[in-house]
Structure formats: C-alpha cells, structure tokens
Amino acid sequence: YQRRVRGVNLDLVMFRNNIVKICSSPFLFSQRISRTYFTSVSLLTMISKEELHKKLHDSNDFVLIDVREPDEVKTNGAIEKAHNIPWRLLPTVLSDDFEENNFEKEYGFKKPKREDQIIFYCRSGNRSQRALDIANSLGYKNILNYKGGALEWFPDHPY
User: Fold this and answer.
1) pLDDT at residue 33 in the model
2) Nearest to 52 by CA among 133, 146, 116
3) Residue 23 catalytic?
4) Are 88 and 94 in contact (CB under 8 A)?
5) DSSP characters for 1-63?
6) Which single residue of 19, 28, 48, 131 could bond 34 by disulfide (Cβ 3.0 to 4.6 Å)?
7) Per the residue annotation, which of 78, 122, 143, 144 is the catalytic one?
C-alpha cells in the first residue's frame, strides 16, 4: 500500500490492519535497509494542514479537539471550530463513566460517540498523538491527529 505523508511517498506493509513497516522508497524496501517503525495506531491516522483546512470549510461531520492546556489556548489562540480538552483529562472524560450530560455542561458540546470522527491537535503533535492513543484505547476508531499542530497552523505566531 502506498500513501503520501508530509510530501514523502511511503510504502506501507500491513499486517492484521496495522502498519508494521514503513519505507520511504521501493529501492530501500527491496534492499531491506529501510527504517522500520512499529505502531499500534497506524500513520494513516494523520491529517495534513491542507486536509484539515478543507474539512473545516466543507464539512461538519467531525469534532476538532485542541488538547493543549487552557492557558495555552487563551494566549496563543485556537483553530476555528476547535473545542479545548487537555489531553491529560481525556481518559476520564471520554470514558463510559463520564456521563454525556456532564460532558456537555463542562465542555459546551456533545460528547463524541465511538463512531464519530475526532481530530486531535496540540502545539506540535506530541500531546495530540497521546490523545489519539488514549481515544484508541477507549474504543474510538475514527480518530485523526493533526500532527502539525498550532506551530504549523499559525506559522507567524511567536509561540
């Protein structure tokens, strides 16, 4: 399977719906000298700036969650349509134990269902990757990570 990620064509080797080997060129792949990465949540869960921009303007069938701390969001701004939930709270608020009406009171939007598409982002992509892993472990499968984060979205902002 081939996918273009961040301007690089990648050959992906799948095993039981997980990516087990990622190679940047067919030559490296055939020579078995490529870098190999193992992941439980595939790289196909990344969304580019262009893809997110298009989704923001063409669609309302997703939830965008900014997993930075509230003071970071207040100081540096947020992407339009984003809801702020710090990543460290996700294991609690996305669990079945956190009631939907409490979620809506606390965060101002409906709690995402397991089948809803959720896009996470943070400053640079690290915390949003953690958020993605947390959501995956709680049974959310339609999840994406905008790895470029606020640094890429607001390039002129002195972060």
Assistant:
1) 32
2) 146
3) no
4) no
5) -EEEETTEEEEEEEETTEEEEEES-HHHHHHT-S-----SS-GGGB--HHHHHHHHHH--SEE
6) 28
7) 122
DSSP 3-state of 104:
helix
- Mean pLDDT throughout 110-124? 97
**Residue-wise pLDDT tens digits, 5-41:** 555 555 555 544 444 444 444 433 333 333 333 344 4
pTM confidence score: 0.74
One-letter amino acid of 71? D
CA dist., res. 73 & res. 87, Å (int): 13
Rounded Cα gap, residues 115 and 4, in angstroms: 25
Tokens at 42, concatenated: 């595939």
Distance of alpha carbon 3 from alpha carbon 31, whole angstroms = 20
Which comes out higher in pLDDT, residue 1 or 55?
55
Q: pLDDT averaged over the chain?
A: 82
